[in-house]
UniProtKB/TrEMBL annotation:
Listed GO MF terms: 5-amino-6-(5-phosphoribosylamino)uracil reductase activity
Record's protein name: Bifunctional deaminase-reductase domain protein
Biological processes annotated in GO: riboflavin biosynthetic process
Domain Bacterial bifunctional deaminase-reductase C-terminal residue range list: 5-163
Domain of life (superkingdom): Bacteria
């Protein structure tokens, strides 16, 4: 099956956004160029994200950032529509099994925390690529919310990128 990669930025205390969803703390961190984003995107064939993350993507971007590939947004609401994405309430494992055969490249699981928790529960993440920002927020939306399945990882790569640490892990299943 197609590889599913969680590629995400977090604070030193494991937050992916402030409680009001803001990412000002992240944008304030000095990186190195695009921190490898373009290279990562080269073989991404589809993205999957939670509805709250999708809403934030729309708020943050003047132009929709992933127009050339399939976009899936998990929601429990009925009847949501967007020109940019397909909304679905399929269980994540069912969705992945259905779309994988037709996807050219890997699947980027964008987040957020709620979707990540579900993906780890179902053991659907193959790889984690983490951009760790040198800031402690103290509160915020967690990368791995309370109650996430205990999961082991194996470090496969680590490099600085400006003030970020870019860490790559395989998920041990
Ligand atoms: N730092 C980063 O790199 C990064 C990356 C990604 C996201 N974020 C941030 O993370 C925040 C959002 O994270 P979050 O944890 O609050 O929310 P989220 O995971 O993005 O979205 C949660 C929503 O997704 C839907 N959902 C989740 N699991 C589902 C399932 N199994 N089946 C059907 N629908 C499901 C539900 O939508 P409905 O309520 O519509 O039913 C739920 O309310 C945003 O602020 C975003 O900017 C940061």
């Amino acid at each position: 099956m197609t590889k599913t990669v969680l590629y995400i930025a977090c604070s030193l205390d494991g937050k992916i956004a402030r409680l009001d969803n803001s990412l000002d703390w992240l944008f304030a961190v000095e990186g190195d160029g695009d921190n490898g984003y373009a290279a990562f995107m080269e073989d991404v064939g589809a993205v999957i994200m939670g509805r709250k993350t999708f809403d934030e993507v729309l708020v943050l971007s003047e132009e929709y950032p992933y127009p050339a590939i399939d976009n899936y947004v998990l929601t429990r609401q009925n009847g949501k529509q967007s020109e940019h994405a397909t909304f679905t309430n399929e269980p994540l494992d069912v969705l992945l099994e259905r779309i994988s055969p037709s996807i050219d490249g890997k699947i980027w699981l964008i987040g957020g925390g709620e979707l990540i928790q579900e993906a780890l529960r179902l053991q659907l993440i193959d790889q984690l690529e983490l951009a760790i920002a040198p800031v402690v927020l103290g509160s915020g939306i967690s990368l791995f919310p309370e109650g996430t399945l205990e999961t082991r990882f194996r470090l496969t790569g680590c490099r600085p990128s400006g003030q970020f640490i870019m860490a790559t892990y395989d998920v041990l299943k």
